[in-house]
Write the structure tokens for this entry.
Amino acid sequence: AQSVTQLGSHVSVSEGALVLLRCNYSSSVPPYLFWYVQYPNQGLQLLLKYTSAATLVKGINGFEAEFKKSETSFHLTKPSAHMSDAAEYFCAVRINTGGFKTIFGAGTRLFVKA
Amino acid sequence: NAGVMQNPRHLVRRRGQEARLRCSPMKGHSHVYWYRQLPEEGLKFMVYLQKENIIDESGMPKERFSAEFPKEGPSILRIQQVVRGDSAAYFCASSPPGDNEQFFGPGTRLTVL
């Protein structure tokens, strides 16, 4: 069965520091992987997606993620955190085997300290 | 091109009443997905529909919940005889045929008193 594990339900960083949000997936077939951001009381906004092209994916707002098949990981990073990055981040996997549902991780809440 | 629309944004119901949540996909999108987000949790898949067809409803509770996506009009998620445990945010997403990216609506926050 496909699943997504996000390590750390809460991550706190100082403004200007590196952001690293961890995501591991399990999949029996090549996955499509996504990172979404959710601000309070809002819907999900796509940050970036991996669809079997380049393993390093660049997204919006300075975020990027690297697909590592050997580690079954898709960690999200940003070199320098901004206060506006404080939000909930969800890693998700969608398996293209004829089933179309997306499996989401439990989420990681990012806090940014001034 | 307007994004995915959901209404109402907030819905309050008393136990035993019915809740109807509406989702209008983006123009050109014929695939609709419904997800539920309980407080402090991630999104859980409920159902995937194409026009007039339910493709995958493996995440739908067996009782009280139903979904439709008619040929004309929005997709409807219907919850009969709501209970307090149904209180959650319900998100709709849409995608065009053959594309893996889903675009999410702002959600409907259901509160059951």
Remarks:
- The CA atoms of residues 29 and 112 of chain A lie 36 Å apart.
- The mean pLDDT of chain A is 89.
- The interface with chain B takes residues 32, 34, 36, 41-46, 49, 51, 90, 94, 96, 99-107 of chain A (CB under 8 Å).
- The radius of gyration of chain A is 14 Å.
